[in-house]
Amino acid sequence: MSTRARTDSGARTPTRTRRAAVLAATVAALGLPFLAVPAEAADTGASAPPPRTGFETSRGDRWTTEGEESAFLAAVDRGSDRVSVRTIGTTRQGRPIRLATVGAAGRAGADTGAGTGARAAGARTTVLLVCSQHGDEPSGREACLTTVRDLAYAQDPGTRRFLSRTTVLVVPTANPDGREADTRGNADGVDINRDHIALKTAEGRALAALIRDRRPEVVYDLHEYGGTSPYYDKDLLALWPRNLNTDAHVHDEAHTLSESYVRPAAGAAGYTSGVYGIWTDPLTGKPLRQVAGDGQERILRNTVGVKHAVGLLVETRVEALTEVEKDDHARNQRRRVDTQLAALKGAFSYVEERRGPLFAATAAARHSGYADRGPVLLGGADNDPAEPAEIIADPPCGYRLDPAQYAEFGDELALHGVTVRRDGDGGFVPLRQSLRALVPLLLDGRAAYRLTSGQPVAVC
């Protein structure tokens, strides 16, 4: 877990011209130049220039408002046949949770996630960007909004080739009520990134249905972090699924995404990076202390790992990292967004270069649950072995739900995509299914974040 040497303050906050040059060179090397083309300079063939966010028009002085986001996405939707924008949920305060689907012209929204065989035959990869689950972490949202626009309007061959084989799903604001209030949680104070098992929130339910229906190969979750520790002061931190029920090949692909693509892309653009949850000595680069980043299945990066997608959490630092940034909050905010954009280019490069291994890993993981063997782990992480009490060494063949349990939790099981067989007025949930490892996490009485305690059935 080496860390890159800190650059001086001038390199950490390059001028606009130098940063543009660095990003252009980086993206050109990756073969994906669309993110380096300023919107106003793109050759779109359209009479009207591409729309700009409130963040862009203010040069980072303020974040894009809810109304500006709505108008921006509507304008991109009208201006490009690569984009389709729709509402996938509504918050308690009545705000829409929007999904922008970006693909080749005429194919935006066409990919329905119709199954592993059909997906492989069509050779299209689905990537989901989840932005601002925490309402007081806005930089990822800004990066997601401009990425939708830049993908929609770019005319270069690299972007055309990328979109001919990729569907990019973007939820620009996963927590609209929290973003409006500038709070971590939603309108009820619930942390959405701790609701991907229970699915009690409208926001969590919308994301679960989206993942179930579109079956993305990659889920990229954009966050920010705060802190003043000298051991935790990188521009970017990243972390893959640590839950031990994640298929080994999916886990390894997620690790590759982080360590071979996302962090190097940030470094090439002049930003420092590290592994989320680990303090490192700034002089030696050695890890000092594990402070976060466990294997809880209710956190999105872990949930999607158990659901056989290559997940990654990325976090940019909120606090200013230089004296110049402390004196200029717009510069600090631009650094946060630019770091997200640099890392995101690495993620797209991963997709472009590793489609084969990515398809192979996710397809095999989705099929492996039908083998119906092996333990299920109720705790631990890839850097923290499960205790004996956390291991279901010989899992049952399924769990029976009584009528009251089925009535209360059948909807959540359906949102997860779990197969349930009707059993009188109740239900039976077999382990022999694609989401085999998820079933005990939802229904076993020993699971920390279970929906309910189903009755284990030893023999089917």
Automatic annotation (TrEMBL):
Any coiled-coil regions, as ranges: none
Listed SUPFAM superfamilies: Zn-dependent exopeptidases (SSF53187)
SMART domains per the UniProt record, alphabetical: Zn_pept
Cofactor: Zn(2+)
Peptidase M14 domain segment(s): 59-317
Signal peptide boundaries: 1-41
Keyword field: Hydrolase, Metalloprotease, Protease, Signal, Zinc
This protein's record includes keyword Hydrolase: yes
Chain residue ranges for the region called Disordered: 42-62
Protein family membership: Belongs to the peptidase M14 family.
Descriptive protein name: M14 family metallocarboxypeptidase
Native source organism of the sequence: Streptomyces lateritius
